[in-house]
Design goal:
The chain is of the alpha+beta class and 466 residues long. 17% of the residues lie in helices and 24% in strands. About 8% of the residues have low confidence.
Length: 466
């Protein structure tokens, strides 16, 4: 845990939000048993044993090369070793992978983009993922491949088919198997109307030192500076749509704030047959949920993590307690002696109105929708222009460093959410400038400048991760 290299000029926008949510706290406190929110790498017991439905990260940002559109990225399956064959990683058939969008502040989805995947084998009489070099998505040497249907669901209307039998970009088996993997992956981009989508394997864009769980970086700040996810891949679904499609009235300038979260659902009963085949029956059950990064990992107590993954944003008043009095600052206080902050010391107990604004309502004047119902999701103001590295105010620390196009106003691929989260939970918005961080300030490989923006997957022919 080290000081971040960035300087600390502008904080007034977020600090002003603290007083804006005090009334909300008072009205919700009666509904505050201990729990929490959101999903990340191996964050809950059940999905840790079911990685195909473990949503690792969610990103939402105004597209840097086309600000009239917004890009949503949903990542799944943590810690994919690139050489993990012969049965390489894949999306799960029989699962509804959803990206949900609320555009009126009511904590319910007004739009759902849903992916459903199918497995295909060209030759079942070989153990190989590919039987020779693969140069195209329809190459007969690509033995295993997946296709998907993408539909758009709006309450009260019939579902709209956006992509029928789209092809998933394959895993990067290695240089001999995929001699031009980037071109092969790019061929999986599907265009429909003014929108695009893509699904497949990519470099895991999240960067952090996961030794935080060794009682906060070894108890003496000695265990920092190593990107634990360096060299690992993940599976991703990305979609880019016009801002006007996401806005409530079809006009992003009049209704610019959206809330986004992902879910994965599967039928309740799995039937395993002696011949190795499976089938699913029963009601659909939500298995995973993700909005803001890290919260289910470090806020929700272990006994409630699986419960949270099956919950819905409209019921999030029940989770207020864990946000206003999170465990992480108390652990930091116990290990390092840094006092856990309190946004209202005159009130009995910890009152973190600053965290309520970031995680539950959006920040007033930045990304809080009108008539907001407190609920955990990633909120994005689509009217704020993108600010990439060439932008004068760009910072990987996002809003706390004066870059209002960054986290927690949505989340860009390069936003350093670990440093941001550590600093915010330690009272950054309350004037306590700790500058805490994990000394991992960027991804191990560069992101791309065009859709889907994610870096191509690491090849299985290279050395192991790290």
């Amino acid at each position: 845990m080290t000081s971040s290299s960035a300087k600390r000029p502008a904080r007034t926008l977020l600090v002003a939000a603290v007083t804006a949510v005090v009334a909300l706290l008072a009205s919700m406190l009666a509904l505050a048993p201990k729990s929490g929110r959101a999903s990340s790498h191996r964050e809950a017991p059940l999905v840790s044993a079911d990685p195909q439905v473990d949503s690792t990260d969610l990103y939402a940002f105004v597209s840097p090369d086309d600000p009239s559109t917004t890009t949503l990225v949903s990542n799944w399956i943590p810690f994919e070793e690139p050489a993990g064959g012969p049965n390489f990683f894949a999306f799960a058939p029989g699962v509804r992978y959803d990206i949900n969008v609320s555009n009126d502040g009511d904590a319910r989805p007004e739009i759902t983009y849903r992916w459903r995947f199918k497995n295909h084998y060209r030759n079942p009489n070989t153990f190989l993922y590919n039987t020779g070099p693969v140069t195209s998505l329809d190459d007969q040497d690509l033995n295993f491949y997946q296709t998907y249907d993408l539909v758009k669901k709006v309450p009260g209307r019939a579902a709209t088919m956006l992509v029928d039998d789209g092809v998933v970009a394959p895993n990067n088996v290695g240089g001999a198997s995929m001699p031009d993997f980037t071109a092969l992956s790019d061929a999986a981009i599907e265009t429909f109307g003014e929108s695009k989508t893509w699904a497949g394997q990519v470099d895991d864009p999240f960067f952090l030192d996961l030794r935080v769980f060794d009682l906060l970086y070894g108890g003496d700040f000695s265990e920092v500076g190593n990107d634990t996810l360096k060299g690992f891949n993940t599976h991703s679904m990305a979609i880019q749509v016009p801002n006007s499609e996401l806005a409530m009235a079809g006009d992003a300038s009049g209704n610019p704030v959206i809330g986004v979260w992902t879910t994965a659902s599967r039928r309740s009963t799995r039937i395993q047959k002696a011949d190795g085949s499976q089938s699913y029956k029963g009601e659909w059950v939500q298995l995973s949920r993700l909005g803001m990064p890290l919260v289910n990992e470090v806020v929700v107590p272990v006994g409630l993590k699986d419960y949270f993954n099956g919950s819905k944003p409209k019921d999030d008043a029940q989770f207020l307690g864990a946000v206003q009095d999170p465990e992480l600052p108390r652990l930091i206080e116990a290990v390092y002696g840094i006092a856990a902050p309190d946004s209202d010391p005159a009130t009995e107990g910890i009152q973190r109105a600053d965290l309520i604004s970031v995680f539950l309502t959006g920040v007033e004047g930045l990304n809080q929708p009108a008539n907001v119902q407190a609920s955990e999701m990633l909120r994005l103001n689509m009217s704020i222009a993108p600010c990439e590295e060439s932008c004068a105010t760009h910072s990987s620390l996002g809003v706390i460093e004066g870059d209002t196009a960054g986290f927690p106003n949505g989340r860009r691929l390069a936003d350093d959410v670990i440093d941001i989260a550590l600093q915010v939970v330690e009272g950054e918005l309350l004037g306590s400038l700790t500058d805490l961080g994990d000394a991992v300030n960027a991804n191990d490989v560069d992101f791309r400048s065009t859709f889907p923006y994610l870096a191509p997957a690491h090849a299985g022919s290279t050395a192991a991760p790290h």
